[in-house]
Design a protein that fits this description.
Layout lengths: L1 E7 L5 H15 L3 E8 L9 H8 L3 E6 L6 H14 L3 E5 H15 L4 E6 L4 H7 L10 H10 L4 E4 L2 H9 L8 E3 L24 E5 L8 H11 L7 E5 L5 H10 L6 E5 L4 H6 L3 E4 L8 H9 L3 E4 L4 H4 L7 E3 L4 H13 L1 H18 L2 H17 L1
Parallel strand pairs: 1-2, 1-4, 2-3, 4-5, 5-6, 6-7, 8-9, 8-11, 9-10, 11-12, 12-13
Length: about 375
């Protein structure tokens, strides 16, 4: 089986980490993977770190500069690569790749089967509405998604919440789209010799992820304000970078929380910061999946999140973490306080979450399900 992955890449985030884990697992199952990277000069340009990491896996990488506006020359080059590669399956990831793959299939009709993975949805929509399909209007993102999806043989999403969104908006149907959860085998977060390096307060919370609106950092900050009365030393560590950083810092100043909130920026040692915190907060409006959950489970630190997709698929409330009423910062604060006051309960939740993650969200399970998906597509 020979498969071409296609994706626009401008940095190593969720989908890129998926590839870096999934590709070796598929190679072990006898699948030949090649990669077509779509890129722009204004976002990393050619030969990114991601490309180098793929090449270290013995993955042949093609690169096409798609610029800001789609051009027929780019579509022809992508079609040429697909035809020359004699692939069994062309597998696109995210909307840019979906769009170009659909154009190629429409106008050049290569013999390969075409499939797509939906790692998420329009950030501007989810920042405002989460996964509420009833709020979807006729937008460019929606129209492109629906048209591109019509050109694929099959597709899958990474959570039930995302699956329901695509079906309920009419972008696809339940017969055409499947569900394959993410699954990663994360390296154990081992204790460090000087844990105080990762400890800034007696009561410490952390949020890890891109600083973008739908991640809900503002709600996390407002919950911390409510906790300061009972925990005057409480500290929230915000790990990550992104376009929403200035707005978050401004809100921290408005609430007089500068001594309670630290912005740590991009860190490679996120697991250690999680491990030595008391609670990991995930106050997102919604998550396509949320690898941050698996990272927190792996660090064996309890998680408090809103009761929204996909948090409520990964956490059993009161068993493997705590789910607060969506967007209710007082309830979010109350749930955090319960864990801060009851270390035994916090430990039980963290252990249960880690056990569940290793059982249901492993790399082996994800790779097996994906391999079976490919076989069904080829047999159809």
């Amino acid at each position: 089986m020979k498969i071409l992955f296609i994706q626009k890449e401008g940095g190593i985030f969720g989908a890129e980490n998926y590839h870096l884990n999934m590709i070796p697992a598929l190679q072990k199952r006898g699948i030949t993977i090649e990669f077509l990277r779509l890129y722009t000069d204004y976002q990393l340009g050619k030969d990114s770190d991601f490309v180098k990491r793929l090449q270290q896996m013995q993955v042949h990488v093609y690169q096409v500069n798609i610029g800001r506006v789609p051009g027929i020359r780019d579509v022809r080059e992508i079609a040429r690569i697909i035809r020359a590669g004699n692939y069994d399956i062309v597998h696109s990831h995210l909307i840019h790749a979906d769009f170009y793959a659909a154009l190629v299939r429409t106008f050049f009709r290569p013999k390969a089967k075409f499939v797509s993975t939906k790692h998420g949805y329009d950030n501007s929509f989810t920042a405002k509405h989460g996964f509420d399909a009833s709020k979807q209007g006729v937008t460019p993102y929606f129209l492109i998604s629906r048209w591109a999806e019509s050109k694929f043989d099959k597709s899958y999403t990474i959570s039930k919440g995302l699956l329901n969104l695509f079906i309920q908006t009419g972008i696809t149907s339940s017969e055409k789209m499947e569900l394959i959860y993410y699954g990663f085998d994360l390296a154990e977060v081992t204790p460090v010799e000087e844990p105080e390096t990762y400890r800034k307060s007696t009561h410490q919370l952390c949020i890890a992820g891109r600083l973008v609106e739908f991640k809900g950092h503002l709600w996390g900050i407002e919950a911390v304000q409510k906790l300061t009365a009972n925990y005057p030393d409480i500290k929230l560590l915000i790990i990550g970078t992104g376009s929403f950083e200035q707005q978050l810092k401004q809100r921290v100043e408005e609430l007089n929380l500068t001594r309670h909130v630290d912005f740590l920026g991009y860190r490679k040692d996120v697991g250690c910061w999680m491990k030595y915190s008391d609670v990991v907060l995930v106050p997102s409006r919604s998550e396509g999946f949320g690898v941050v959950f698996l990272e927190a489970f792996n660090a064996r630190t309890p998680v408090v999140a809103f009761n929204v997709p996909a948090a409520n698929e990964l956490i059993s409330d009161g068993e493997s973490g705590m789910l607060a009423t969506p967007y209710d910062t007082q309830d979010l604060a109350d749930k955090v306080s319960m864990l801060l006051q009851n270390k035994d309960m916090a430990g039980q939740y963290a252990a249960a979450a880690d056990t569940n993650a290793k059982k249901f969200f492993s790399l082996n399970t994800m790779a097996d399900n994906t391999y079976s998906f490919y076989k069904r597509v080829l047999q159809a």
